Amino acid sequence: MIEAVIATSDLCHDYAHGQQSYRVLNNINLSVARGETIVLLGASGSGKSTLLNLMAGMEPIQRGDIQLFGQSLARMDDRHRTLLRRESIGFVHQAFNLIPTLSVADNVSLPLALAGIPRLQSDHRRQELLEAVGLAGRGSDWPDRLSGGEQQRVAIARALAAKPPLILADEPTGNLDADNGQRVMHLLARLVAENSSSLVVVTHSLDVASIADRSFALSAAGLRAVDTTAAGAAGAW
Amino acid sequence: MIHLMVTGAAPLLARSSIRFYRRHPAQLMLSVLGIILGVGIVTAVLITNSSATAAFSLSTEALYGRSSHHLVAADGIEDASYAELRLAWPEVPMAPIIEGYVAYDNSVLTLIGVDPFAEAVFARFGNAGVDDEGLPVTTELLSDPRGVLIATAVADRQELEIGTTLKVQTPTGMIEVLHAGRLDASNPAAVDGVLLTDISRAQTWLGRSGRLDRIEVVLEDRDVDRFVASLPPTLKLEAAENRRATMQAMTRGFQINLTAMSLLALVVGGFLIHNTMSFAVLQRRELFASLRISGVTARQIMYTVLAEAAVVSLVAAALGVLLGRIISEGLIALTTRTINDLYFVLHVQDVQMSLATILLGITLGVSTSLIAALASALDAAATSPLAARQRSSTEERTRRLIAPLAAVGLVLIFAGGVLALLPSLSLLVGFAALMLLILGYGLTLPWLIHRLARAAVSLWGHIGVLAGLALGGIERDISRTSVAIAALAVAVSATLGVDVMTGSFRSSVDEWLGTTLASDVYVSAPSVRASDGALLEPALMEVAAATPGVHKVSSGRALDLSTSAGRLDTLILEPHDTSAESFEFVSGDPDSAWQQWRDEGAVLISEPLATKHGLDVGSRMSLFTASVGDQEFSVAGVFRDYGSSHGKLMLSRAVFDTYWDDERINTLGILLDNAPQNEQAAVIETLRQRLAQAAGRALEIRSGRSIHEQSLAIFDRTFEVTGVLRWLTVGVAFIGIFSALLALHLERAKEFAVLRASGATRAQTATLVVLQSSFMGLLAGLLALPLGYIMSLLLIHVINVRSFGWRMHADVAPQALLAALALALLAALLAGLWPAIRLSRGGIAQQLRDD
Hints:
The structure holds two protein chains of two kinds.
Chain A: E1 4-17, E2 20-33, E3 37-41, H1 48-55, E4 63-68, E5 71-72, H2 78-88, E6 89-92, H3 104-114, H4 119-132, H5 148-160, E7 166-170, H6 178-194, E8 198-203, E9 214-219, E10 222-226, H7 228-234
Parallel strand pairs in A: 3-8, 3-9, 6-7, 7-8
Antiparallel strand pairs in A: 1-2, 1-4, 4-5, 9-10
Chain B: H1 2-7, H2 10-23, H3 25-64, E1 69-73, E2 77-78, H4 79-88, E3 94-104, E4 107-114, H5 138-142, E5 147-151, H6 152-158, E6 165-170, E7 173-183, E8 194-198, H7 199-206, E9 211-212, E10 214-217, H8 224-230, E11 235-239, H9 240-282, H10 285-293, H11 298-342, H12 355-382, H13 385-388, H14 391-421, H15 427-460, H16 465-476, H17 478-516, E12 521-524, H18 540-545, E13 550-563, E14 566-574, E15 585-587, H19 590-599, E16 603-606, H20 607-613, E17 620-625, E18 629-639, E19 648-652, H21 653-659, E20 667-672, H22 677-695, E21 700-703, H23 704-718, H24 720-747, H25 749-757, H26 762-804, H27 814-841, H28 844-849
Parallel strand pairs in B: 4-8, 5-7, 14-19, 16-18
Antiparallel strand pairs in B: 1-10, 1-11, 2-9, 3-4, 3-10, 5-8, 6-7, 12-20, 12-21, 13-14, 13-20, 15-18, 16-19, 17-18
């Protein structure tokens, strides 16, 4: 059996809205193997981002569990979840979420600095990543001087900086046009593969699903494996 | 505004503004609170000053009644002179008056002796104080030899029933008086603190039998010259108005200083309002950009920001005025105590809050807010719609602006310096210099902050990721951080300036007391107030000198003399061998000045007197003497004196004896033989017994040290008002920095969420916020030091000299500098704690969603 990088078991999550609560995740069971790329499809509000946030340990688990490298996130306090995230996860956000007051280079260096990587080593890694995403000459620029595609490439470089074994990407092409989106996805897939990391991508774009080893559709009913080619044709998800 | 109305966009823009503040209630509340406090302080001081002035005017009007002039003499008028005048001028209404202080139940009261039969025409105390015959309730007053009329306010406060007796401390000892009736006036506040009795009784109780303080007269203008011509040279006619003006002038410097302190709080408040408005604008740059793209003009944006400032400040200023009314209660009590300690006994019963005060408070608050908001409004209007969406463009624009701003700041500092150095005695010019300096320095601060933050990054940025982020954040976010740091720096520098000034003043007074109180022991008659001039028998000097263990004896007599420089506290000194050492001359050669004063009939004057009247060595002054009336004297020297801001004159006993036939003294200064402490104590005990026996009553014998300590205690009490204002200013500053840091950090909530998503722990995030806040506090503290120091120099060498005539050396205690640093650091640290807790506890996903 292939060792799972991350695995959810009977994961449920509710959101409270005033007196009422509604369920966004219902008994989700998903396992991601080392080096595997998973695409989660779903309509807006289906809970894709919530699932990703739970997998990243950014929200406390209400019911069920997530095993990250064999460790239960449900039993972990915030500090341990954070430390595990720092070591194991890189996150790519739809809105890029670059820190506007840090230069492009500093944004990429941030996870390395948090991980306590020595300066020389960190500088080398940063340069390597900026070259890999095609922004070697833009390190001193401010993020808001870059185009959307460029900003997302910086975000990818940042997510991969500390060589995390798992990359979580939340609608990484959501704010980009089709061409840019495709380029960014291919870049992400290539760098993840070079790094031998696993990748979980949340998207509503079937184009993105083309890079997946496995694809799933998320809905109120739960998680369901889909054939993206057929699904794309039929609009099944 | 009109433009907005015309376009019809105003309601939409107003709704947008309201929505913004509803989403940031803490920010709104803090900015409102800053203005409330600033306006509150100013209004409280305005109310305090007007209440004290009104109480003073009310009481002088009530006491002086219709009198147009006063007749005075060099040291009281003999009863016989009054009788002669009445005979010579039967048609001129005259009333003899004697005034002094007595104490009852720890409160000092003014005892006024009047001739009930001469009073009617003077309409003293308004109509309420007279009986059917127009006399001030004479029957009650004359029915018992102990009878006094007690001001209704005092009687009510002390719960004194008519017909009861009370023990009152007078300069001649404890006496029993009978509460014969109530002293009323049209306005009861006018006679608060007054005991009225028959003149002969008052003379006995005050130990001034046979003498009057003044004779009040009602003279028509046409009769004045004729009347003056008929007077003997020993009597002088003064206009009643002059006396009032002199007394008001005594407290003017003090009141102006209070006002200046409160305005300082408002200036600090102004910086903080600017701070708040800057944040409110910076936070909405993207919103403004969207509005601009939608067709809203730059001018409309500017008006919107100004309208926000106007509405917020109007509400806050109105609340500030109410707060001022509350603070003024405490401030009036402190101020009255200071006036009573330093100048004269004043009872303030009514709090004066006129419509003018209310309007002035509101106008000051709103106009300061609008001026402070103007820069932000212009900034909001000047940014191009597209650039406003880019955060980096704001920062770059700020970086480009800070150097020219610093240059303008330097020009203002230079202008302030020139104004301060102008040879003027104008207090207004002094304050203008102070304000220019503060403003100028405030404008250079962003540049300095940027440089210092950059230096800090290169020095310490590599220590750790948090240090790097914290320090780097200050430099990178310069548009936000510089405003917050500058506001805190200005506030802290104001407290440092006042601290150094007060400290320097205290150490100068301490040093001066050490020099001036050259005798080991001082003897005086028991008195209600130190300055009320209770007399000692001259023969006591010989008794003291003959006591074994006594080395030398000097004597002093205090008089209120009429001079060409107005009425002046005068000390007539018969010195002993070392008395000269107790004077520090600030002008004139000490040896020659002393010799001219002692042997050649010259006078010595105090520094405030010289400063205020432009007198110096060689100047001539006219003194109204007892024997020949006006007589000219030359000034031999100017001595340092912190005893009276009004000015002080010193005459030698020999000169006094030439022009006055009056041997009486007020104090003895006794120098003991060098001996062990226990032997000196025995000498003092012997002195106490011998002097009491010779005087027939117990006398006050106090060591120089205890007078020194008591004087410093009074000094400290005097500065309690300043202390209160200073802490209120610190309160304004704290609210400002709290609001700035809260806005700054909460604005960056998403950045912190990204940090946490990237693996920063809650503790690291909180540490980052606290580190950055602390470093901002440290920067503010360091930058406050030069401004605080220069401000203290201005307060000491310009404002103080122009207000009081006192010069002193600047004494910068390291503790004051450390305290300023600690204050800035602590304020920033405390202000950073709440955002640190809030940001570290917030959910990452939630913060990432909330854009």
